[in-house]
Amino acid sequence: MQAVLPHxxxxxxxxxxxxxxxxxxxxxVCGLLGHSEIDVRRVAAVTIGLIGDKHSIPPLVxxxxxxxxxxxxxxxxxxxxxxxxxxxxxxxRPFREGVSMLAAExxxxxxxxxxxxxxxxxxxAEAYNQGAIAQFFLGQWQRSINSCKRAIERVPxxxxxxxxxxxxxxxxxxxxxxxxxxRQALKINPRMPAITRACHRIEARIHDxxxxxxxxxxxxxxx
Length: 223
Known about the structure:
This protein has helices at 5-9, 13-21, 26-31, 38-51, 57-63, 69-84, 89-103, 107-120, 125-137, 141-154, 159-171, 175-188, 193-212, 215-221. The longest helix is centred in the last third of the chain and has 20 residues, at 193-212. It is mainly alpha-helical. The chain contains 14 helices and no strands.
């Protein structure tokens, strides 16, 4: 802790990463996610976000269920950080362009950039997921679902892609499928308030549709 605290307080990400990697292997830092002290778990999660790789994903996913909310938030940030740098060097260039186009709401251009990125690196899960987001905003629901599935094939714990499928199924009116996706995403990452609210809205909507079918009224009249 003493070796990394100055860099944490100074918000010097590069120095923090160097201080950690010069002393401990990433696997040892991942082991600290199970430490009894909350501050150690928090620092470990932040650090793994800087130096972790795909092998760090399972312990970070477990930390999404940590009793401490900040550990959850830092583990989630670490996962996104690892996913975003998960492609090879050549695929990273169009990926970065796609992220910029997505932020600028240029969804056609963004989708094309992410497609180029996945052509270069077929295993770049986050490029598929970001492509799915662009396709969602273009109203291409089924294409977006297919892209989400490709991301999930490569990273089964990708709660973002699973939630994205739920958004698409909601737009398509397939509420049962949407609810399944949202519930699965929450099993992986239980602290996603927007997805929890989406679940509640769909559950209420499904209940309303059941009531409006007349099935329950008919049953009550026959008693």
